[in-house]
Amino acid sequence: MANKANISANSSSCAALLVLAISFIGCFAEERDIYLVLIEGEPLAFHGSDDKRRFDLNSDAYKGQAKRLMDSHDRILQSTLEIGSYNKLYSFKYTVNGFAVHLTPTQAKKLENAPQVKLVERDRRAKLMTSYTPQFLGLPQGVWTQRGGDKNAGEGIVIGFVDTGINPSHPSFANYNPFEPNISHFSGDCETGPRFPLSSCNGKIVSARFFSAGAQAVATLNTSVDFLSPFDAVGHGSHVASTAAGNAGVPVVVDGFFYGLASGMAPCARIAVYKAMYPTVGTLADVIAAIDQATMDGVDILTLSIGPDEPPRDTITMLGIFDVLMLFARRAGVFVVQAAGNQGPAPSTVVSYSPWAVAAAACTTDRIYPGSLLLGNGLKLGGVGLSGPTCGRPLFLSKLVLARDVILRVNGTFPRTPQYIEECQYPEAFEPSLAQGSVVICTFSDGFYNQTSTLTAVINTAITLGFMGFILIANSHYGDFVAEPIPFAVPGILIPKVSTSEIILQYYEQQTHRDERGVAIKFNAQAGIGEGRVASFEGRAPIVSRFSSRGPDFTDLSRNPTDVLKPDVTAPGHQIWAAWSPVSALDPMLTGCNFALLSGTSMATPHIAGIAALIKQHNPSWTPTMIASAISSTATKYDNYGQLIMAEGFEITSTYNSTHFDFGSGLVSATRALDPGLVLSVEFEDYISFLCSLADTDPVSIKAATGIWCNHSLSHPANLNLPSVTVSAVAKSLILQRSLKNVGNKTETYLTSVVHPNGTTVSLYPPWFTIAPQGTQDLAIQFNVTQAIGDFSFGEIVLTGSLNHTVRIPLSVKPVSIF
Ligand SMILES: *[C@@H]1O[C@H](CO)[C@@H](O)[C@H](O)[C@H]1NC(C)=O
Ligand SMILES: *[C@@H]1O[C@H](CO)[C@@H](O)[C@H](O)[C@H]1NC(C)=O
Ligand SMILES: *[C@@H]1O[C@H](CO)[C@@H](O)[C@H](O)[C@H]1NC(C)=O
Ligand SMILES: *[C@@H]1O[C@H](CO)[C@@H](O)[C@H](O)[C@H]1NC(C)=O
Ligand SMILES: *[C@@H]1O[C@H](CO)[C@@H](O)[C@H](O)[C@H]1NC(C)=O
Ligand SMILES: *[C@@H]1O[C@H](CO)[C@@H](O)[C@H](O)[C@H]1NC(C)=O
Ligand SMILES: *[C@@H]1O[C@H](CO)[C@@H](O)[C@H](O)[C@H]1NC(C)=O
Ligand SMILES: *[C@@H]1O[C@H](CO)[C@@H](O)[C@H](O)[C@H]1NC(C)=O
Ligand SMILES: *[C@@H]1O[C@H](CO)[C@@H](O)[C@H](O)[C@H]1NC(C)=O
Ligand SMILES: *[C@@H]1O[C@H](CO)[C@@H](O)[C@H](O)[C@H]1NC(C)=O
Fold this sequence. Notes:
- This protein has 819 residues and is of the alpha/beta class.
- The chain has six domains: 1-29; 31-122, Peptidase S8 propeptide/proteinase inhibitor I9 (Alpha-Beta Plaits); 126-130 and 149-367 and 539-674, 3-Layer(aba) Sandwich (Rossmann fold), CATH 3.40.50; 377-407 and 418-523, 3-Layer(bba) Sandwich (Glucose Oxidase, domain 1), CATH 3.50.30; 682-717, no CATH class; 724-817, Immunoglobulin-like (Sandwich).
- It contains 18 helices and 40 strands.
- The chain is globular and about 85 Å long.
- It starts with a helix and ends with a strand.
- Bound molecules: 2-acetamido-2-deoxy-beta-D-glucopyranose (10 copies).
- One 2-acetamido-2-deoxy-beta-D-glucopyranose is lined by residues 410-411.
């Protein structure tokens, strides 16, 4: 006995040495990262039965089952890896069964082969889907773009936000409603911490949690910005939440100027906060833990203005863990809306892939902020920037100087010559007596091009030296730049067009005297900056924003198109005013502000979330797919001129007729979506059959990701009952089916009509039908190819009801051959 113990002690110390040696080597060769792991066995939400019956979270049965799942995760790790060599961050128990663990790639490989492990995926990190940081100016071409209510509206509905947290003291989130909402279906919590006292959960904010194990595993958090509480130090989460569910009629005031009133789409909906993104880092592990918890808490709607910014590496797009989690959230009855991405306008840039989540594209509205610059010769030029007029007076003119002409010279040389003096980044580079009281022309150059120069620095220079105002002009060497209106603390204007910039320079040179060395000695030019903070409502709108990611949807890294329409629908996402966090950890320019004007599909997403809340309130029994159908089938493809909605192209002023790959079904309409007439709905099992019918998936990976075998598959993936038809290859002829349900309360007769996609003829059977309330009707759609076209072409099916309902089903097909 003693002998045996001895031997085993010896052998185990040898083993320990060996492990030490390996991990020692590992230290140099391998970087640890977070891995997301799915495990065999049903998660709690679906344990033992298929119905959506909710657990009593406080019951012993629930707690026992939760513990069993957690223990099983620990057992798998312990039996596969050396204890102490890994760090489990989360057990996911409710929506999916799995965990997040911090370890080396070698350990991850081992885990992949462990029994019960279905799927191992490296954490791809998560990003905020805001397109522009006011800090930086971008150019339209080049690397960047190629990379790419009423009083109770929404009452009783809980919208969950997985984001950067919330600013609880913002007036958009004050609780004005004296009534306790009936949200018995929801059970949240109020986690407190820095800047987030218990009183933050005030009834408007019904729950607030934060998830940080992933962030803490991969980064050293900075306690002065990465608050370990639901408090939003960035502003993004507050912006998104107030757009969906912010109180109505909140005055937007920035730098003392009143811009108007802000309201959320569903101002009486309740807010559940799931903070998972930090200024320093955002991990998928924290995001997934947040979504798992939100589903368990029972949110009605989940808003994801964040997500992985690239497709998964080792699996098809729809079977990445993020997408699988959304599938199960939908199975549990949650309506999930996600940002389409900000990598447009190149095709196949969407970062939303799956038919079970609604992807929001972004468009402009008809509100613009026309800035103006007045020159001493009477010329008035247009520009961009939310600033007051120079000297507080609209037509005030003062001396105009070019930055290069007012640099500090000592004994004829520069005491300090920082790079890109013309970009006004350094106050010490200028001669204070010449700069003070002048309107100074700064010029776009390498610093802005390389994203090292900032507008904050320009403004800082202007304040330090007492500029009367600044003008940032374009440079013909780089071409026009993209400018967004941002509130400036001093009068200023951005002139993004080279042609306008040249007019300014020409006038300036005419009025400026130079000595024989070219040094400016007398400045006679004058300029004034006009009021730029007053909105004007004009022009064609909406227009799909340049940055908004485009379809077609695709299945893998090689971007093979798949038979699903993405984006699904379009909502305003350009220059949206909403709540902000004065800490503004990622945008020094907006520090101290309570509101911000932002652009991105991040801003379009909460518009859809808010409208979904209104639909759910009016139709409490509707499933997420019915809500999604109502939103898509009632969207419009026409703009305020009554013409097809345009989309911005690569060139700065170019636009083209939108296709479904730009705007999905079109611009969302809240009023029509509340009363769609017919809906197309999909059950959970249909999604599995759909996955099983995709050409490039195998049943084993579907079983691994979803836990379900492919016992059924659709005869064609495009037969999934979506409110759109997308077919990436039609040869000769194809018949597809759709099933429609009357959700109106009257019998209605519908006439069908078709706009044929180029290269096809489309026939519908039956051509007309009468449908009773709650009745269903099948519709057969036959495509016959008349001409092979190597690309997608677009059309639509329109069902026009006798009671004025209109149901539109977009068609996107690639007719590949007539044989
Ligand atoms: C709250 O709503 C639930 C169903 O959503 C209902 O069963 C319950 O009676 C309601 N409670 C109150 C106080 O209205
Ligand atoms: C932490 O953040 C603060 C505020 O942004 C910053 O001033 C400080 O340098 C940061 N500290 C570290 C260690 O990055
Ligand atoms: C400028 O030149 C004068 C005379 O050469 C010299 O005395 C003075 O120190 C110089 N000033 C600086 C700041 O270099
Ligand atoms: C900045 O961009 C220019 C191109 O205009 C390039 O030549 C230069 O090397 C870049 N500088 C840095 C520091 O990246
Ligand atoms: C764009 O669509 C309009 C219909 O709204 C059509 O008249 C026009 O010809 C189209 N333009 C192009 C370039 O296809
Ligand atoms: C589905 O198929 C799997 C494997 O072929 C089989 O084990 C399972 O019993 C089937 N399930 C049903 C419901 O038919
Ligand atoms: C029927 O539906 C319409 C529109 O949805 C609604 O205004 C009306 O109140 C409903 N009528 C009944 C009897 O439910
Ligand atoms: C349809 O396709 C034909 C042949 O490719 C092309 O000439 C025509 O312009 C297309 N029409 C539209 C509306 O795209
Ligand atoms: C489409 O093709 C099918 C089979 O080839 C044929 O029966 C049908 O008549 C065609 N429909 C039209 C509208 O051409
Ligand atoms: C349908 O719309 C037309 C025109 O807007 C209107 O005259 C008619 O009364 C409407 N019919 C119903 C049933 O609402």
